[in-house]
Each structure stands twice: as structure tokens, then as C-alpha cells.
UniProtKB/TrEMBL annotation:
Family that this chain belongs to: Belongs to the protein N5-glutamine methyltransferase family. PrmC subfamily.
Gene Ontology terms describing biological process: methylation
Positions that bind S-adenosyl-L-methionine: 129-133, 152, 181, 195
Reaction(s) the record says it catalyses: L-glutaminyl-[peptide chain release factor] + S-adenosyl-L-methionine = N(5)-methyl-L-glutaminyl-[peptide chain release factor] + S-adenosyl-L-homocysteine + H(+)
SUPFAM superfamilies in the cross-refs: S-adenosyl-L-methionine-dependent methyltransferases
PROSITE patterns with a match to the protein in the record: N6_MTASE
Annotated substrate binding sites: 195-198
Keywords: Methyltransferase, S-adenosyl-L-methionine, Transferase
PANTHER family (alphabetical): HEMK METHYLTRANSFERASE, MTRF1L RELEASE FACTOR GLUTAMINE METHYLTRANSFERASE
Gene of this entry: prmC
Function of the protein: Methylates the class 1 translation termination release factors RF1/PrfA and RF2/PrfB on the glutamine residue of the universally conserved GGQ motif.
Protein name: Release factor glutamine methyltransferase
Organism of origin: Neoroseomonas oryzicola
Classification via InterPro entries: DNA_methylase_N6_adenine_CS, HemK-like, N5-glutamine_MTase, PrmC_N, RF_methyltr_PrmC, SAM-dependent_MTases_sf, Small_mtfrase_dom
Domain Methyltransferase small positions: 116-202
Length: 289
């Protein structure tokens, strides 16, 4: 990005040129993303940039911004560049070992909290395929009396989730383990959460490059029909749910009927779905019996 990363250039000039670079790379909302990256490089808030666009960008910040811009133009996700992502009320560390938490998944948290007449009934929580720990930690943040465990096949993801619990003041009520779904667990849970991999294997290459190239395939690939992880989880749910317990699973677009059919074959009842902000049926609520 010639010229834009020269120390001493103004904030306004940096943002203008960076927006052009990102627009040429096919990035949506290029000016918005340029502001996020420059604010991160300068260690300030985005509104501070807008307040004084004639302010000079220091040399160290210019270099950091130039590198961040290069990565973003190559479709590295912003969350990976910043190393952080907001979810629910939480600030979460992210890495290439975990799926980036998305606002769509907040529907799972909403559905979980709404599934109980009183949230005090949520005592033990299980999050299968926990990734950053987003779902589990969001529920624990809303239910002070609850305790939970998150499981992820990737040891690096489980370790990252544990760091997120500590950073958000929830380490005393959350434990994270590396394992193959529930194989390392015993006991029953009042609430089981999961955002399983649900993309059909052959469809992954057609996803936006930020996802297809940079997010872990383990967290995306749901097998030939996208339903492999659901079959595994739903077969185990009757043994995992405590009496009166609920499970909330994230769905991919158009998957409700297929997942409900698998659930019914395992003796599980569908209690309905909650849509995300885009109107997609996103959170399926299930009960045993």
C-alpha cells in the first residue's frame, strides 16, 4: 500500500487510501473496516479517528496498519487480525484454531435462556464443540448460579476457551477439556449447547474466502450431507440431559426439518426454533421424551 503506510501521513489520508485498497480487494464496507484496523494499530477508539482526521499517524502505527491492511486485502478475517471478537456481552480472544463467534449464534443463547421458566433451573451446562467458549460463557454470564464444561476436539481451542473464561471473570464456573464430543464425560446436564459443523463437505470451497481459507475445517465440515455431527450429538442427548433438561443446537440454512427428523428418531421432542436477526431458523430447542 504505497504512500498510505508512510509515517506522518494524516488519519484521513490513511483511511481514504485504505478504503480504496479494500474496495479493490472486494471487501464489503471497506471504510468501516479501515477504521477498525487503524484504530487498533493506533490503540484508540474509532470515534477518536473521526474526531481529528488531520492528526498524524505515528511511524509504528503506520507500519502495523500497513501489515494489517495487507492481510485484510488477502481476506484474512478482521477478528484474526485483531485477535478479538465481541459476542453477547463478552470480549473473546480468537485464533485460527476456532470458529469466529458470529452474531447469528446469539440466537442460541437467547433460546437457551428462554427455554426455562426460571434461569435458576439451569445448574449444569455442557457446550459440545465449544471453540472460543462463546455459547457456554454467554449463558454463565447470564446465570450466576450455573456451572459448565466445554468440550472441543482441538486442544488449542479448549485452551483458548479457558483463557476466555478467565478474562471474562468466569474461570471459577467453567472447565474446558479436549475430547471427542461427550466421550470423556459422565453425568447429566440441565442445558446442552452446540454449534456443530454443519456445512456439507463439497460446499466448503464455495464459502466466502474468509471462512473457506482461514477458519478451521474441523469446525465447518459436517460430512457429505452436513448432518454428520448432528447424528452423533443427537444419539447421545437422551443420556446427557437431566430430567427437565433442554438442548439448543445451531442450525444451518434450511436444516430444521432434517435435524428434527434425526432428533425424533432418537426419542427427542422439538420445542421449536428461534430465528436469528436475518430471519434464518437458527436455534433448535429439544427435550427428551
Amino acid at each position: 500500500m504505497s504512500g498510505c503506510a508512510d509515517p506522518g501521513g494524516s488519519v484521513g489520508a490513511f483511511l481514504c487510501q485504505a478504503g480504496q485498497v479494500l474496495r479493490a480487494a472486494g471487501i464489503e464496507a471497506p471504510r468501516l473496516e479501515a477504521r477498525r484496523l487503524l484504530a487498533h494499530a493506533m490503540g484508540c477508539r474509532e470515534e477518536d479517528l473521526l474526531r481529528d482526521p488531520r492528526a498524524a499517524v505515528p511511524g509504528g502505527a503506520a507500519a502495523a496498519f500497513g501489515e494489517a491492511l495487507r492481510r485484510r486485502a488477502a481476506h484474512v478475517p478482521v477478528a484474526h487480525i485483531l485477535g478479538r471478537q465481541g459476542f453477547w456481552t463478552l470480549d473473546l480472544e480468537v485464533s485460527a484454531d476456532t470458529l469466529i463467534p458470529r452474531a447469528d449464534s446469539e440466537a442460541i443463547v437467547e433460546a437457551a435462556l428462554a427455554a426455562f421458566p426460571a434461569t435458576e433451573a439451569i445448574g449444569r451446562v455442557l457446550d459440545l464443540g465449544t471453540g472460543t467458549g462463546a455459547l457456554l460463557l454467554a449463558v454463565l454470564a447470564e446465570v450466576p448460579g450455573a456451572w459448565g464444561v466445554g468440550v472441543d476436539l482441538a486442544p488449542a481451542a479448549a485452551a483458548l476457551a479457558a483463557r476466555n473464561a478467565a478474562a471474562n471473570g468466569l474461570a471459577g464456573r467453567a472447565a474446558f477439556v479436549a475430547g471427542d464430543w461427550d466421550s470423556a464425560l459422565s453425568g447429566r446436564f440441565d442445558l446442552v449447547l452446540s454449534n456443530p459443523p454443519y456445512i456439507a463437505s463439497e460446499d466448503i470451497g464455495g464459502l466466502m474466502p474468509e471462512v473457506a481459507r482461514h477458519e478451521p475445517r474441523l469446525a465447518l465440515d459436517g460430512g457429505a450431507d452436513g448432518l454428520g455431527a448432528y447424528r452423533r450429538i443427537l444419539a447421545r442427548l437422551p443420556a446427557l440431559l437431566a430430567p427437565g433438561g433442554r438442548a439448543v443446537l445451531e442450525l444451518g440454512v434450511g436444516q430444521r426439518a432434517a435435524v428434527e427428523a434425526i432428533a425424533a428418531a432418537e426419542g427427542l421432542r422439538s420445542l421449536g426454533v428461534r430465528a436469528d436477526l436475518g430471519g434464518v431458523e437458527r436455534a433448535l430447542v429439544l427435550a427428551a421424551g
